[in-house]
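Extended Data, panel c. Modelled sequence:
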Amino acid sequence: MSDFITVLTLFKEGKFTMGEILIIGAVLWVAVFIYKLPEIIRAIKGR
C-alpha cells in the first residue's frame, strides 16, 4: 500500500502524467487479478 501512496505523492508533484497513472493502475489491477485467480477459479468451481 505504501507504493500506492508514493505514486500519489509523485502525482501531486507532477512527476506522472494521467496516462502513466492509468498504466500503473492497470498493471496493479492485472497483478492483483493474477494473484487472486486461484480463489476466483475455486469460487466458480464450487457453485
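The chain has a mean pLDDT of 83. This feature is highlighted in the accompanying rendering.
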